[in-house]
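Is this the right way to post structure tokens for a design question? Let me know if I should format differently. Anyway, here goes:
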């Protein structure tokens, strides 16, 4: 079997995306059994190389591998030989020499997953590279919609928030046309990449207009750690004009967020109790989707 990397949505075909949804359906069923485990990847070892902080992505990949019967090795940059000057590639090659069968990597530098995928003989899965892509997050977001609505094709998803620094938003830009999803984008002008105005998706600067009639709203975190200079006057001003509140949403609209959430900034705290808040469903879907990705990369014929 040819090596299967997942470095971005751009490289995936529509057929592969739908295959991953179908595999996730099967593994969702596994997660509902008493044992919640299958030996599909028994004997395999997955390395989790996380050079940025993470809760949901890191632990759901860890749990996904273990639910499939694989072992995991969690790498921590702190206290490793990187402190002594060892390169990222040498670190990865040394870990592979210990018997890893796949690598999941998150790194602050754009292109890190592509760099490793071109140089390592095992599958490389991108868990987020800088402001580039976060492919499994976009897959689990749309899989959450698929489970809720029974389909993805024809739905309208409004993405609100920090578009400029969001790798989740970029992955959705690549994913939407492959699954028939309609996108709307909403952010302050200073947080919209200039080239995005020419992509054909409607861009709004008012939340109320952006969410009207949409099937679902995906709210993005304000990524303060990536802002080298202030993109807005203040967090209070952002909350005043771009915070999503209960009065913005209509009955039946689904609320999503990739986490972590800055309650009181991008989301009004009252939305914790929104009837169609599916944020924790996204977390659950993340395990099933990442099981599907690992099985596709390592085990599926």
């Amino acid at each position: 079997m040819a090596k299967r990397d997942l470095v971005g949505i751009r490289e995936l075909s529509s057929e592969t995306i739908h295959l991953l949804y179908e595999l996730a359906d099967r593994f969702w069923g596994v997660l509902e059994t008493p044992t919640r485990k299958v030996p599909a990847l028994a004997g395999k070892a997955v390395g989790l190389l996380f050079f940025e902080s993470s809760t949901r992505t890191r632990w759901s990949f860890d749990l996904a591998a273990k639910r499939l019967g694989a072992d995991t090795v969690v790498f921590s940059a702190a206290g490793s030989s990187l402190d002594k000057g060892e390169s990222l590639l040498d670190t990865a090659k040394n870990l592979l020499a210990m018997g890893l069968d796949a690598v999941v990597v998150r790194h602050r530098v754009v292109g890190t997953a592509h760099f490793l995928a071109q140089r390592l003989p095992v599958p490389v899965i991108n868990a987020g590279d800088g402001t580039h892509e976060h492919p499994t997050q976009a897959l689990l977001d749309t899989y959450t919609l698929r489970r809720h609505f029974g389909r993805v094709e024809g739905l309208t998803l409004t993405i609100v928030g920090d578009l400029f620094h969001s790798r989740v938003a970029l992955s959705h830009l690549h994913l939407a046309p492959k699954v028939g999803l309609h996108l709307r984008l909403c952010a302050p002008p200073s947080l919209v990449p200039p080239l995005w105005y020419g992509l054909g998706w409607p861009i709004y600067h008012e939340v109320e207009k952006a969410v009207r009639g949409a099937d679902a709203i995906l709210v993005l975190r304000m990524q303060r750690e990536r802002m080298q200079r202030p993109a807005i006057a203040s967090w209070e001003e952002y909350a005043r004009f771009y915070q999503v509140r209960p009065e913005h949403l209509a009955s039946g609209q689904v609320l999503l967020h990739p986490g972590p959430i800055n309650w009181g900034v991008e989301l009004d705290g009252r939305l914790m109790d929104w009837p169609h808040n599916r944020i924790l469903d996204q977390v659950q879907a993340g395990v099933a989707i990442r099981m599907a990705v690992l099985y596709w990369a390592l085990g599926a014929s």
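Format looks fine. Someone answered above. Worth noting: Residues 65 and 291 are 6 Å apart (CA to CA). The radius of gyration is 19 Å.
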